[in-house]
Amino acid sequence: MTGETHNPAPAAAPALTDDLPAGLRRGADLSQLADPRLVRTLTWWRGLQDAPGQIPDRIRLDPTQIPDLLAYAILWDVLPAPDHDGEAASSGTGDRLRYRCRLAGTMLNDFYGREARGQWLHEQYGDESAAMQVEYDAVVRLRRPLWTEHRMSWADKPFYRYLRLMLPFTHRAAAGRSDQPALRHDPDRVALIFNVISFIGE
After folding, report:
1. Which of 61, 80, 112, 146 gets the highest tally of CB atoms within 10 A of its CB?
2. Which CATH number goes with the domain that contains 185?
């Protein structure tokens, strides 16, 4: 028909995961997670949600529900860097957040050869900490679970690769505490990341 004009279809909005490294984009697709231990952990986490898409609160984290997973678990506090106030830290940008181990399972402590509790992310991972920071920051920013695959750097260990499922939790009960300024600004921000590891051999 003459004179008819066609407006192009609007471009699709970029997905939240588009700017992630390829490995993390894969890890954002939870349908690709096949490891039995991690699938079970994800099912448990989803059962803690008040509604689909919501992050469970720490008060729902009951270790007695997953006793056989605890040896492979590690819990990280999400904290603002000391040179940023809570409002800035809650934005989730990488240079404004730090991660400190609150608890670590016995299998992980044995594997690392030291007690992980109380260590910062950079102390735990050394030269690999910058890459790890990107992964933890992504969980905070996306407010969703991610899984990752890594190759170990310790040649004397029997396992060379592992899968890690990273699960976000809020901590609304801490919103009024003076040592948690970020939670005062946003009580629904990611305050904890609960990881479970599965070693998968070479």
Report:
1. 146
2. 3.30.450.20
Residues 159, 38 contacting (CB under 8 angstroms): no
Strand 192-201: give its sheet, edge to edge: 97-104, 73-80, 192-201, 161-169, 146-151
Domain count, the chain: 1
- How is residue 74 annotated by DSSP? E
Neighbouring C-beta atoms of residue 28, cutoff 10 Å: 18
pLDDT in tens, 15-56: 556 677 777 888 889 999 999 999 999 999 999 999 988 999
151: Cβ–Cβ under 8 A, 6 or more apart, which residues? 160, 161
**Is 168 a domain residue?**
yes
Asked whether residue 69 is assigned to any structural domain, the reply reads yes
Contact 79, 98 (CB under 8 A): yes
Specify if 96 maps to a domain: yes
Contact 80, 183 (CB under 8 A): no
Q: Which residues contact 50 (CB under 8 A, 6 or more apart)?
A: 56
For residue 57, the cross-strand partners are 170
Of 148, 132, 137, whose CA–CA distance to 24 is shortest?
Answer: 148
Region at 201 (left for phi over 0; alpha for psi -120 to 50; beta for the rest): left
| Domain that residue 187 falls in | 22-201
- Average pLDDT of the chain to the nearest whole number: 79
Q: What is the pLDDT of residues 156-193, one digit of tens each?
A: 665 568 899 999 999 877 665 545 555 555 778 899 99
Establish if 91 belongs to a structural domain.
yes
